[in-house]
Amino acid sequence: MSEPEPEPGSEPARPFSIRRDGDDNAAGDGARAPDASGSDAETVPDRLPDDALVDVRSEQEAVHTQEVLDRLDRELVGLVPVKSRIREIGDLLLVDRLRERFGIESSRPTLHMSFTGSPGTGKTTVALRMAELLHRLGYLAKGHMVSVTRDDLVGQYIGHTAPKTKEVLKRAMGGVLFVDEAYYLYRQENERDYGQETIEILLQVMENQREDLVVILAGYKDRMDEFFQSNPGMSSRIAHHIHFPDYTRDELVQVAGLMLAQQHYELSSEAETAFEDYLERRMRQPRFANARSVRNALERARLRQAARIVAEARTDLGKADLMQIEAADILRSRVFDDDSATCTGEPPQETIDEGA
Amino acid sequence: MRITQGTFSFLPDLTDDEIKAQIRYAIANGWALAVEYTDDPHPRNSYWEMWDLPMFDVVDASGVFLEVTRCREAFANHYVKVTAYDPSHCRQTTAFDLIVNRPAIEPGFRLDRQEVSDRQIRYTVHSYASEQPHGERYRSGSSQ
Question: B69 CA to chain A: closest CA distance, Å?
């Protein structure tokens, strides 16, 4: 309770003081009084005496963060630098929680992040897990994720942008705002572009309402770098710049294995070799989108498998046959057809489109 | 005269944290929150001005409270209330409304008696504040 209780009889006293959110953070140090949190619903346990001892593991179990991290490990192949960074953030917040229990004041860490990397490297998935992790640690009240692009934030005429952006921010409060392809917010060639207004509002909220909202900006590495160069204010408010490396071929094979297992398919051993060969070729082609390309390739393999099964019209079809993807299903891909296509950059058309 | 209308209006004014708790309760029930304000708090005035749009898809109290704060800043000397709308089938009405801001000085009401035929009396509640034109009521809050 930061407000004094108004006395029932005292009429003229203004019982409602206007509290400007973020006034206490305006100085920039972001010092957070332990009783001024207000936003988190859970009750903070009583302050421990100075000579008390706490168990890190039991605290970790109490907030179930390990679960989220394990799931991240299980569901996402590779991405070692990303995972270790997230683990570090999780550890920091856990230690902060413990410190808070002893009444040690520390500034609230800035949790805004930028995720850079090629398409299909798991940026959105990691952001989702991040939201869940921060929720478990009590840093976000709800832990949902609102995923937006330029169109959702920037208006079409003067005076349209601010309400639109604020609307989105309100929806994202208590969770993570994931701005995909954030560099589109800033159009260098047009200085009257409304995107600038969105950036300013975002900056203000990122500074003043750090306890309510975590902003994650995502996009291609080079274009994000450019974006941060033209918006140094944005760059300095983001503490964690996390780069998602491209997957190696072996990692992509693992990804494919996970995806197939989820859909109850399996590759025959020849198909596995064929798929590795396929990836080898596909990775050299333009518009390769890592895990997303793998998923699309598998979707097309499913189509071919179904076509093959129907065409064969066998009378003795078993369960295993329905689950098995054969080498032929993969080798019929257009990627194997023509090596010259890799140079032109235009994948040739085919009935089952071989896009990204 | 302290105006008492809406939920908990006979209690001392709620603190910010208590308001947030109420907002959280409404969100947990799936009610949509909206902020409204007026300078004509006549008990029969059901239609207050809307502050922005109702927040149907805001899932966290801080988002709603942001609007409460903004409305209070803009209309410091008005009445501001938070209403929760229950959209569930068969109810579809206001679940609660909570006064979250009131002017510093509330001049209150007087009762007007009008004698009509056969010595009948008709009563009217007259708000002192409404003697001023719209927008000029509850000015500064110090000299009324």
Answer: 7
